[in-house]
C-alpha cells in the first residue's frame, strides 16, 4: 500500500499577533525568520500564487497555513480578511484547505462557529506542556485543562488536530515531560510536533539563563527525551511530524540561539538514536555473534541506521568488538526494522 502524499503547505507568518501573553521562551521573529509586520490580504495572494508555482506533481493536498501567532486571538475583522483571501484560492480549486495554529484558551464553540464556511481543515494547538506548574512558570496564561477542552471542541467540529509540546521548559523534569507525553497521547491528536526548549535571544529565558535561573536541556538529554516521546506517540498511532525547531536563516545567525539543544538535524539525531537502540538489541540477542556482520534495513532507513557521519556504525563496531559492519539496503525489510546477517568474507567496513 502506498503512503499518503504529504500536504503541500503554503506558510504565512503572523509573528506574535493575537497573543495576549509574551511567553518566557518566545521570540517568533527569530524562530520564524519573519518580522513583526501585519500580514496584508493582498500580500497573501501574491505569496500563495508564488508557492503554487513551486508545487511538484508528487505532493498531496495544498493547504494555506497561518503560523507564528495566535490565530483565533486576532480581531474578528482581521481574521475574516485573511480567511477570505485564502478562501478565494480554495474556490478556484488551487488550494484544498486552510490550517492555523492557536492557543488552547482561544478555542471555543463560538470561535469555531465564527470560522463559518471557510475551508479550515486543520488546527494546531500550542499546548507546550500538560503540567500546570510548568505552564505557569513559562507564563503561558492557560492550563492543561484548556488544552483538553480545546481538543474535544475541535474534534466535535470535525477538524484535524495537532498538538505542539516543548520539553525542557522552566520547571520541567524527565517525569513531567513523559507525563505530558502520556496526557497528550490520551487526547489522540492526529499529529504532534516536539520542540525541545532552546534559549533564543531577546526572550525572558535569555535573561534567566544569564542570571543562572534557567538551564536548558543538553543536546544529549533532549535527544533522549524526545526519542522516548516519539516512541510513545508512534506506539499510540500518533504521527510526529516534526522534532526540533526548523533551522531558519535567522536562527542560524550567530547569537540567535543563546543556549540549548538546537541542531539543524535534530530530528535525524532522534531517528538515529532509535535505530542505534534497535541495532544494539538485535546484536545482543544474537547467541553467537560473528565478527563480520551486515545490518539490512529498508532503503529509506539507511541514513537513520548509519547515524550522522556514520556515528552509529562506529559505535556498534566498538561496543560489540566487530571487525566489519556493513549497512545494506533491502526493500524486503519493513521500515523501522532491521535484519542481522553474517558476512561470509571480509569486506570493507560500511
Give your account of this protein's structure.
The protein has 350 residues and is an alpha/beta fold. The protein has two domains: 8-264, Aldolase class I (TIM Barrel, Alpha-Beta Barrel); 285-342, no CATH class. Helices cover 37% and strands 18% of the residues. The strands form three sheets. A seven-stranded parallel β-sheet has the order 1-2-3-4-5-6-8. A three-stranded mixed β-sheet has the order 11-10-12. Strand 5 (160-165), helix 7 (174-187) and strand 6 (191-194) form a beta-alpha-beta unit. The longest helix is centred in the C-terminal third of the chain and has 20 residues, at 266-285. Residues 346-350 have low confidence and may be disordered.
CATH-assigned homologous superfamily of the largest domain: Aldolase class I
Number of contiguous helices: 12
Structural class: alpha/beta
Rg over CA atoms, rounded to whole Å, is 22 Å
The residue ranges in which pLDDT falls below 50 over 5 or more consecutive positions are: 346-350
